[in-house]
Amino acid sequence: MTYTFSTDDAFSYQTLRAVSYAPYDGADFGEVLATATQITPGDWESWYEEWRKLAQRTKTIAEQAEVGGHSESARCAYLRAANYYRTAEFFLRDDPLNDPRLLPTWEDGVRCFRRALALSSTPSRRAAIPYGHGQLEGYYFPGGEDDQLRPTLLAHGGFDSTVEEMYFAVAAAAVRHGWNCLIFEGPGQGAALRQRGQVFRADWEAVVTPAVDYALAQPGVDPSRLALLGLSLGGFLAPRAAAFEHRLAACVAFDGVYDGFDSLRLLTSSAGGDLDSLISRRRDLPSNFRWLLSNAIWVFGTHSGGELLTKTSAYTMHGIADMITCPTLVCEGEEDHLAPGQPKKLFEALTCQKQLMAFTAAEGGGAHCQMGALTLLHQRVFDWLDDVVKVPQ
User: Does pTM top 0.90 for this prediction?
Assistant: First the structure.
């Protein structure tokens, strides 16, 4: 990558991811850099301890500011703390079901985020989206203080996302651009995975359709101007849903993914061993591969390499991409190390109105999901959305 914060590639990218949310009060560069210099490359315990210390320290700042009546200072610090807790929890993946740190760390981050929203002058509310016999977690942000009809963006994450992260990734920018925004998470993500044990499903339309129903019930939502955005693996999940949910006026794959787990099969092939063998000795692998395997076992609820390959084989747009009818934007990072080549494959398979939006290393947007250049991404994506999802005459 253009930006490096560690000799450990996975640590470097996740540090970039954390600091990328600074434009939306999710980080401070100095805090992040000071923490990164204290972390031992490849040492997951070191990663957790240093990021947790930063999160705790920042939460204390927020609490003291709130007690002192400084609500804006508190709001900003709570948002940073929420992101830092998320980052601390990220590599607790070798035994997530039994690691006593994982759930409390995630919960601390969620509490900080919700406290920040409570202190904000920007309207928002938690969204309980009916799903099966339960509900999905979400947050709804109106694009203005009146009930004037506005375009609405529905947005979700991917392989390792939480709904709170989606505020920094897109919701804050959506409101600035005059859009309503509903961010939500499905099985395999956030609370659905951590609290209810719900693992991923490939037929993501079963997740998006209830979210569309929820959005349409909100005041100020123009039913003719609904768009869906998916982040990272969401660059597969969102187009997959758009192939079946035709109430959408546009779809954004950020970044685009044609085959969600082609990288898993390439890893197995390049390592020269079977997947079960790689899983059993994953702690000896580089952090990128170790984390990929550990997280996959958790979010898919699998117990063997064969089962994992079987489940992930359904995450492809083959035979589905040409069912999308709404205009679709496919984003691509020049230096994407997680899904190289996938955006072009998705773009080529689409038969609807489409655009491939490439971001280069020279402009700072070459990383996976344009981390490090989110304001540039948001400018270009929302300009595209504004042009495609026009005000009806």
Answer: yes
